[in-house]
Amino acid sequence: MWKMSRVRRIVLLIISIFSTMFLSGCWDMKTFEDTGFILQLGLELDDNGDLLYSVTMPVVEEEIDEKVEILYTTADLLREGRDKLRNTSGKRIEGGKTQQIHFSRELAEKGLGEILDVYMRSSENPLLANITVVEGSPLEMYQISLNYEDKTRVAFYVTNLIDDARKRTSTSETRVYDYMIMQKSKTIDPTAVHIRYDKEGIEITGTALFNGDKMVGSLDSVQSGLLHALMGNRINFSYFYRETDQHTFQTGKSGIALGLKNVKRKIKFDLSGDIPKISIDLKITSSLSEYDTMHQLDDPKSKKQIEEKVAESIKKDCEEILAYLQKIGSDPIGFAEIARSKYNSFYKSVEWKKIYPDIEFSVDVKLSIVTQGAIN
Length: 376
Description:
The protein is built from twelve helices and 14 strands.
């Protein structure tokens, strides 16, 4: 009997020891009410040229009317900025739920690489956060957004805007991990969501373009859709065609609106000369959204003529986009990556950044109007 009780005590002691070793306790428990979850991070330069670090966090306390808490400070490092904010917020600030990282255009033009490098250092950092460039001050955007009475919390409001714009291929999809991969590859330049704001609301204006880690230009929403087509990505956006000699009717309606739905892309390199020639073939299917009485699309001959005219217009727009990309030194389509992977010996024999502005591009577009809406 005594031996049995002794065995039980030994077994209980062993269980207790193993429990303390392998079962988690509550010593590092994080209480929801005592934690501030960063939903947005804003980075810009203040009047003195210092890095201004701002965040928005949801307010969950019932006795406080505001839905969003805004904190900001100046800091040379992101971690330093977060620790400074902890000294004033009264909460443990965590960044694992961050939806967006907003950079001012001024800061984006100076370069983002060194700033974003911190996100590769810790597993708690939000690699899925969207990268955006704001025309103006991210902090001012947060502060103005407090007066948007008909909007949700600004972080969710902007997330919905970005998601909708991406469905319409009106902007790019660049998250932290996308940006870091492209920056390290050195053969595909990253892009970012381009944003503007005012007292009425926030607008996704298109796509910010980069050369390396520096912003060098931008495209509007329709141009962004055409950029997706040149990339060979899925497309789903409205394209508007107007003839230069067309007169506006009494209704005020003039032109054709098409929904560009699908694209098949082929790229060919001609390396017979010192500078490569690159041809891009695009086959696009579309649906008719709206047109005026000048265009009789019920007639097959007239329909074919319109398809050819719109295809020529898209071709012209694409060639203008390519010329603009060459001018600013941005290659988001990844021509350098195609050259590196398919024509490696040639790629190694040239300095791609130097020859890129002189490459001769040609675009051929074939457009098919496959539906004309409910009356088809």
